[in-house]
Write a structure and sequence with these properties.
Distance between the termini: 139 Å
Strand content: under 5%
Strand order of the largest sheet: 1-2
Largest sheet: 2 strands, antiparallel
Helix content: over 70%
Structural class: mainly alpha
Order of helices and strands: EEH
Length: 108
């Protein structure tokens, strides 16, 4: 009779059959249990996380509004900066005119 590791071929086949049945049963329990757990877990997790999702949506909306507001303020700032530069140049020209008038008056 042929043997492998001291067991006959019939004994090895029996051991493999028992191990296969056990692994199949464990796999089925895990798979079935996880499906049942996921159904309840998903319902519970959705009910718990729903307020957080809503707050995140509101936060995202507010951040987008903030970006729009910042862009508008940046445009207003640039426009104001141009006006200030223009006024500064005018003041410089006025200063030069006044200075030239005083110099003319002193020379006369």
């Amino acid at each position: 009779m042929h043997t492998l590791l001291g067991y006959s071929w019939a004994e090895i086949a029996s051991i493999l059959a028992v191990i296969s049945v056990l692994f199949s049963g464990v796999y089925w329990l895990i798979n079935h249990g996880s499906k049942a757990f996921n159904k309840n877990f998903n319902k519970n997790i959705n009910s718990v996380l729903q307020p957080f999702w809503e707050q995140l949506k509101k936060l995202n909306t507010n951040i987008q509004k903030l970006y729009v507001s910042i862009d508008k303020q940046q445009a207003n700032f640039e426009r104001l900066e141009k006006r200030v530069d223009e006024h500064d140049r005018r003041l410089d020209r006025h200063h030069e005119r006044i200075k030239s008038l005083f110099e003319r008056k002193e020379n006369e």
